[in-house]
Amino acid sequence: MYTSYPARRARELAPGVLLCVAVAAASFFIQRAEERLLGHAIIEALVVAIVLGMIVRTARALPARFAAGVSFSGKEVLEVAVLLLGASVDLPQLLRAGPALLAGIVLIVALGLTAGYWVGRMLGLAPKLAVLVACGNAICGNSAIAAVAPVIGADAKDVASAIAFTAVLGVVMVLGLPLLIEPLALSHYQYGVLAGMTVYAVPQVLAATFPVSALAGEVGTLVKLVRVLMLGPVVLFFTLRTRKGEGRRGSTSIGRLVPWFIVGFVVLAVLRSTGVLPASLATSVRFVSGLLMILAMAALGLGVDARAVARAGSRVSLTVTLSLITMLALSTAMILALRIK
């Protein structure tokens, strides 16, 4: 009996995709439980999905029938999730932050990327893992790691390692960063800038700033969005760098130079900023992107044996810590140099 390719492909993917959906759903509800009990999520569903997936994978090797669906969820679904992130970018709002602050943020992100990469290399990390850790620290944690990984060809173990240790420090930042307000004599505006520059994920920025004051929360969110906007140029840079390193030559269309999901990311950002994509629809798109990202993280976790990550743990954790300290120092210097009050 003849079966069409789409039907065969669906049957091939179904076991792995459904397993990823189950892990992602559990992670989503764990985050919701945190929000109900604590008022906000300390550990995001993205991180929970990685951890749960790794627990499942470590406890029992997955049968071969799950491989195709897990791989699909970790690559194609991830790319769609990154594309949809563009709907959260509001360019006019970012420009209201002022040209000096905008230029300072771009400079600190570039310096943080460079410093984070070389710290990782000096501590013995492989180049791709060093890139992932540097991007996570300098831009937006999990989302940056997830977006850069397919471009540089990083494997699931490297992605899981970078996200796992970046996530641990992210939680520490949420809890510990407010303690710096008094020793550094920071105003709430200055603290908002510092939090926006150093805390990884947008929800973590909200958790670290709004309990301090509404002003700190608004400024922190705005600065954080500027960092998120850097994701597109950074991914494009690594795309071109990877192609050059692989020695690819000849005529190349823009569609091959720039990953399709990054083109989509930029298009959605423009549509959102010009009002073509209404704010209400952008909110829904962002929510869908978040769900797909959780699904992709579950797939990445399911592809990793935790014992393999643990073997590289000390170097990764030290790299993340030193990179984060560098970002804190650079961000404080920027606040002082620009005389932000």
Could you describe the 3D structure shown?
This protein has 341 residues and is an all-alpha fold. The protein has one domain. 78% of the residues lie in helices and 0% in strands. It has 17 helices and no strands. The chain has helices at 5-38, 45-59, 67-85, 91-95, 99-122, 127-140, 142-152, 156-176, 188-198, 202-209, 214-229, 231-245, 254-257, 260-274, 279-302, 306-311, 313-337. Helix 8 packs parallel to helix 10 (202-209). It is globular, with a radius of gyration of 20 Å. Mean pLDDT is 81; it is low at 250-257.
Helix/strand layout:
Elements: H1 5-38, H2 45-59, H3 67-85, H4 91-95, H5 99-122, H6 127-140, H7 142-152, H8 156-176, H9 188-198, H10 202-209, H11 214-229, H12 231-245, H13 254-257, H14 260-274, H15 279-302, H16 306-311, H17 313-337
Helix pairs in contact: 1-2, 1-3, 1-15, 2-15, 3-7, 3-14, 3-15, 5-6, 5-17, 6-7, 6-8, 6-17, 7-8, 7-12, 8-10, 8-17, 9-10, 9-11, 9-17, 10-11
Largest sheet: none
Helix run count: 17
Beta strands, count: 0
**Shape field:** globular
Helical content (DSSP H or I, runs of 4+): over 70%
Query: What is the arithmetic mean of pLDDT?
Result: 81
Order of helices and strands: HHHHHHHHHHHHHHHHH
In total, the number of domains comes to 1
Distance separating the two termini: 73 Å
* Low-confidence residue ranges: 250-257
